[in-house]
Every structure is written in C-alpha cells, then in structure tokens.
Amino acid sequence: MVQIVHFAGLxxxxxxxxxxxxxxxxxxxxFDPDARRVEMLAASGGQALDRNAPxxxxxxxxxxxxxxxxxxLFGPHGWAxxxxxxxxxxxxxxxxxxxxxxxxTDAEARGLLYLDAPISGGAAKAAQGQLxxxxxxxxxxxxxxxxxxxxIAQTVHRLxxxxxxGSAMKAVNQLLAGVHIAAMGxxxxxxxxxxxDLARVLDVxxxxxxxxxxxENRAPHVIDADYAPRSAIDIxxxxxxxxxxxxxxxxxxLPVTETALVQYRAASAAGLGREDDAAITKHIAGRASICLPxxx
Length: 296
Known about the structure:
This protein is α/β, with parallel strands linked by helices. It has helices at residues 14-23, 35-42, 66-74, 97-109, 122-127, 139-144, 146-152, 165-193, 198-205, 213-223, 233-249, 255-272, 280-286, and strands at residues 4-8, 27-31, 47-48, 56-61, 83-91, 113-116, 119-120, 131-137, 153-158.
C-alpha cells in the first residue's frame, strides 16, 4: 500500500486532492510552479516536493493537458524519477485516449505502473476527497493506488485493464459539461433579455426539467458577478477540442459540441479565457448589449 505520495500540480483540483491525501494519513509531497500553492499544502500537513524528497509509492499528476503531463512525468526534470520501482503513476489530466496509452507504455518501460485516472467533481469535492475518478489500467495499478484513490475519491469507476478507456469516458463527460455550461450562458442571457430576475430564474429552473448540475453550479457565479476562475474558459477550448478531434477521427459529426467550442474560442479571443467558465454568459450577453449582474 502507498505511504508516500507525490503530487505534481497543486492547482484548483490538485491542491484539494493533496490535502485530502494528507488528511487520510498519507505522507504527501507536492510541487507547483506557484510557491503559494505549495505553502497552502504545507499548512495542511504536506511538504514541498523537490529532488531531495524520498521516493514515492505513487505519483499523482494533476496538470492542464497532455504536454504538461508528459513534461511533468518524463521530461528532463520529470517527477517519475522519484517513484520507486513498481510504483504507480495516476494521470489525472484530460487527454486523448491515445495519449493515455502512450503514457502507460512510457511508464511501463521505466518499471512503473500507470493508471489512466481523469477526475470530475470540481475543486470543492477535491478538497472533500469526494471526486469521481474514471479509471482504467492494469489490475496491479489499481491495487497499488487503492489507498490514494480511497483518499481522493467518493467513486472510482473501474473501466478496463488498459489506459485509454478512462480518458475516453472523461471525454464523454466533458462533452456534456462543456455544452451544459454554454447552454447555461445562453439561458441566463435569454432570461436577462426578458428582464427576469436571474436569482429567481435559478430558483425555478433548479426544480424544473431544464436544470443540470452545471446550471445549478455556475449560474450563481453569474448572479454574484463572481468570475474568479474555478474552471476557466480556456479549459473548455482545450477539452472540447479533444472531444471534436476524437470524433473527427471516427467520422462522427458533433454539431452541438462544435458550436459550443466556437463560443468558447470566441470568448477566449475576446479576453475572457482566464476567467471562470461562467463568463461564457458575459460573452453571449455582450453580443446583444444585455446587462448582467455587476454590469457585465
């Protein structure tokens, strides 16, 4: 069982996951380019990850994309060097299935196990150790990662014995989530155009058939004019891009997803890319000069 676990990436999800692992009694080391995030981990019982840290039984990589994952794991200063032989890497970024399979191959060539383990649930659930993990990998990888998964997840979906399946399932989730956020932005913009009180709209819709988890979670950001990034616009430009690339390779048109992707890319080009993804509402409403709470 894992006793020492390293975290590469302490962003909005990674920090909460590392803190949850520390609360569960694991010895946690974490690295992030932002030293403030490392300090926050240290205040929660973790330690800074550097080249002098002891080797880990597990390495959890929670970065933005495939390129960062490859660099964080296997680059010139990759943290995989600090995983003991037979240890397990958990790759949690949203990547294409073929990337996950290649990462598994690279890990196994170094005598390490690999778990394709994309995550869902948001920063709040990460901090509570209640994420959903869509995982695939060798049974030995699941066994090796068992107590790490127990610490960070409420639900672990075992989706297969090889990497790639977990990432394919995450792509399905991201398709729905990204479209739902864009639909939320359209719905609130439409409601504002009809002079409806957006707080009242939220009250009505969340107990009606038109609701979604994303509507209920993101609409309050718009109502409060709070666009501090929990999950940024640019993440959806990336993730829906992955979805549409996978679909294109299969010859499958996804017109609704493709339309949502155009909106996220346009919002990013308009300077909203680093704002909370609820700011898609600002982009949509702004095209008709519709006023949102806070003057957005």
